[in-house]
Design goal:
This protein has 153 residues and is mainly alpha-helical. It has one domain. The protein is 78% helix and 0% strand. The protein has five helices and no strands. Helix 4 packs antiparallel against helix 5. The radius of gyration is 18 Å and the shape is elongated.
Length: 153
């Protein structure tokens, strides 16, 4: 058992592990938040114009890419010392630009009304802000773990 603990706490793979944890955690939570918003609160998933399998396959791929962008972007900002932007704010910016792209391309659930557009726009930014926060939180906890395990570094 001691060898297993030593492997996980002292292996050089740990930096890769923090990226994977941040990536999968942020992606999963953002996907669940999106399903909560569109599937339960707005109930507009019934209005998707594409076949369900195609829509959810592309939707899953999109959230994997969003999680990857957040993880890589935040880690690069952190590595280069350009961490003026907090991770959650970086996520909000990603959400802002994603919704702008979707809006300009006309990708929506065919729901009309300016109120719906504004609320959906805000939700997109909140959703990606949560993803950015989770990436930042995982990186923060990994740094604290590194300080405890290796205080001389």
């Amino acid at each position: 058992m001691e060898n297993v603990v030593h492997y996980f706490w002292h292996n050089s793979q740990m930096p890769r592990t923090r990226y994977l944890i941040a990536f999968f955690l942020s992606t999963t939570v953002m996907m669940m938040a999106s399903l909560l918003w569109h599937g339960i609160l707005l109930n507009d998933l019934r209005n998707i114009p594409q076949p369900e399998f195609l829509f959810f396959s592309l939707w899953s791929l999109l959230y994997l890419v969003i999680g990857l962008v957040l993880t890589i972007g935040i880690s690069q900002l952190e590595k280069n010392g350009i961490f003026i932007l907090k991770p959650w704010f970086f996520g909000v910016l990603v959400g802002f630009f994603l919704y702008l792209i979707a809006f300009v391309l006309g990708i929506s659930f065919k729901t009309n009304g300016a109120e719906h557009i504004v609320v959906d726009f805000l939700w997109q930014m909140i959703e990606q802000g949560i993803g950015g926060f989770l990436v930042g939180f995982v990186f923060y906890m990994a740094r604290k773990r590194d300080q405890i395990v290796n205080p001389d570094a």
